[in-house]
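so my prof wants the structure for this chain in the tokens format not the other one, which i didnt know existed until like an hour ago. anyway here's the sequence
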Amino acid sequence: MTGRYFPLSLCSHPNPTTMEHMALNEGVIMAHGASIALIHPVTWFPRIIVNAYRRSRHLDTSFPQMLKLMLKGCIYRYRHISSDGSERR
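here's what i got, hopefully its the right format
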């Protein structure tokens, strides 16, 4: 069977994406930290450090601020969300 490749552009997105607009939103950063803590309960701490570093480099923001917000998300997760993902009462 043979195939042919045609480099066609069906659509384009010249403006920044929605996530790029929201990337510096504190709630989004905290939610990312909380989701890491939920998905990786044993290795969340080094993952938070690496993700905060990468995000700070990508967005040209302060690493300590990113780390602080992601850790706030982790703390929120451990206080308010159980290990199965349901909300604690």
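also thought this was worth mentioning. The mean pLDDT is 86.
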